[in-house]
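thought: fold this chain, then report.
action: predict
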Amino acid sequence: MVNLKTNDPRYWVAALIILLFALIPVIATYTGQLFFISQFSRIMIYALAVVGLNLILGFGGMASLGHALYMGIGAYGVGIFEFHGVTNGWLQLVAALVVGGVFATAIGAVAVRLKGMTFIMITLAFAQMGYFMAVTLRTYGGEDGRAIGSHSQMYLFDFSSPIVLYYVIFACLVATLWWMNRVIVSKFGMVIRGSRSNERRMLALGFPTFRYKLVAYVISAQLCVVAGFLLANLTLYASPSFMQWTVSAELIIMVILGGMFTVFGPVVGALVFLLLEEWLSNFHSTVFPVLGELVNEHWLAVLGAFVILVVLTARNGIYGYIGKGARQL
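observation:
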């Protein structure tokens, strides 16, 4: 990993988390807690999405409140094709990536010219348009969405097996982390980071920042499309709820919680956020039953308080707070 030495505690945190992900199916099978496989599959899918979002949010300074749109496109790429009897997963994925690429290019061409709150609101507006468009698709379930009858047929990989699907998700996440780690130190990544710090200077140096930022936006969106494709195969469901702005907000929270200025930070953010969500929403206490009921009923408030505490005390997120040099991986 870039500029990350073995004596840096963040190196070992990242290694241990990746090792944990790799061993979850073994642990789940040995303990009989098979729900761990689906739980951590979901965590890694969201981790994949937030690693993509972080390319423009953390490194590019573009806070998109509409990336859930692309997860929805990935999910509907499975749902719509399966509805018409096409279960070829490669075809579903390519079609979703093409549609997601067209949407991302069109939206990005408008959005990346803007900054700050204007950028946030324009991405939110486009995402809401996509959400309401999905709601009007009565043939495919409308507002309720639709159950997907079968997993995507990938030929080399049997997605009907939870363990196979798990390791495909794991491989996608690890490959994305490796690739993103290379991208941020490349010329492309340096221009994106430089544009975040001082776009006028980058323009004065002769770099067409609009072009670079648009490409970064499209790449970020495409990773969310892949995440949506995998999520649909995990849940066997496609719904407009995948595109709601609240999902986009959760993705941003995961990035900030883990650490915006790191490649691996968003993975930590997704892991912590989703595990806390699961634990708090099912919290029970035999010692203090009243407290248990209170937390269980108002778990969102407790989760929100935790996020605020992290933001106030760890400027660069949980992962960035570990060790020194938080702007490096």
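thought: worth noting. Confidence is low (pLDDT under 50) at residues 325-329.
final: tokens above.
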